[in-house]
Design a protein that fits this description.
Layout: E1 2-11, E2 16-24, H1 34-45, E3 52-59, E4 65-73, H2 76-82
């Protein structure tokens, strides 16, 4: 699984970084889990995994590439204020 960050934008009002990414998953069977992508993005962004939230991730039919959006917060407290509970 290769994760490529397409764009990265700071949002100082919400104290987070908004990230657009692309995941190539040619060797895996199917789209990787959100947890796997979360850990991969966290290592690239030099953040703890609990600070990274995958907002959207989808693979187009017939391709081995998923695109998505994620947010990386400065603190767990800030993430709890902004992110909806599920």
């Amino acid at each position: 699984m290769k994760i490529k960050i397409i764009s990265q934008e700071q949002n100082p009002l919400l104290k987070r970084t908004e990230v657009a990414f692309q995941v190539e998953h040619r060797k895996e069977k199917g789209t990787p889990s959100r947890l796997q992508v979360r850990e991969g993005l966290a290592s690239q962004l030099k953040k703890e995994p609990q600070l990274v939230y995958i907002r959207k991730m989808e693979t187009r039919t017939g391709t081995m590439t998923a695109t998505g959006q994620a947010t990386a917060y400065e603190s767990v407290e800030q993430a709890r204020l902004v992110e909806p509970e599920h």
